[in-house]
Amino acid sequence: MSPNYIRSFSEGCLRPPTVIGQFHTLFFGSIRMFFLGVLGFAVYGNEALHFSCDPDKREVNLFCYNQFRPITPQVFWALQLVIVLVPGAFFHLYAACKNIKQEDILQKSSYTSFYIFSVFLRIILEVVAFWLQIQLFGFKVNAIYMCDVGALEKKFNITRCMVPEHFEKTIFLIAMYTFTVITVILCVAEIFEISCRRLGFLKTQ
User: Fold this and answer.
1) Where are the coiled-coil regions (predicted)?
2) Residue 45: φ, ψ to 5°
3) pTM confidence score
């Protein structure tokens, strides 16, 4: 791929053809990623080290933590961010390879339809991630986690585990849910903006 294609691809990703799309890129790329990268590490970075059960033994702590966290929230949200970026990245890669200028995307029906389809895919992926987050993490992190350690062949089957900083994690969960909702709203608003431009209610950039 030539430098011109790379430049066109990067410009398309950073500067979508709609105003709301540009705001979405700013929100998604700066606020959401900063929140996850900086605050997420501060909240969840040492969770495994401070997760303790009764009795406080390494094998019990590790077994119960793996049961408590089948996947760590940071990994889940990082995968979510990457996967949600894929539809837009494919579109802008296509536009770069076809030498389509950003201002021409909303002028031709086929380009517009393809772009709207990529936005719809973003919405679907966000909704699926929202549902998976509910299934994995719920809406609240409790201070006590009851762990089933029967597989360890211990005399006890259920043990109590202390979850560190559970209140901070609850706030962080709510924040990530909120970010997902905001992103979906922005995607819907972007489709509405495109429709208004195509119908002539708004001036095309």
Assistant:
1) none
2) -60, -40
3) 0.82
Single-letter residue type at 59: E
| Per-residue pLDDT reduced to its tens digit, 104-113 | 777 878 888 8
Angle at which helix 109-137 crosses helix 166-199, to 10 degrees, equals 160
Domain that holds residue 182: 3-9+18-204
Q: The domain that contains 48 carries what CATH number?
A: 1.20.1440.80
Over the stretch 90-149, which tens digit does the pLDDT of each residue have?
Answer: 887 777 777 777 777 778 788 888 888 989 999 999 999 999 999 998 899 898 998 888
Q: What is the DSSP letter of 77?
A: H
Amino acid residing at 132 = L
CB atoms within 10 A of CB 152: 15
Which helix (H) or strand (E) segment is 144 a member of? strand 144-148
CB 19 within 8 A of CB 193: yes
CA gap 145, 59 in Å, rounded: 16
User: What is the spatial distance between Cα 92 and Cα 89, in angstroms, rounded to a whole number?
Assistant: 5
Domain count, the chain: 1
**Encoding tokens for residue 123?**
């919405």
Tokens 């909702």 appear where?
A: 181
Tokens 């053809």 identify what position?
Answer: 17
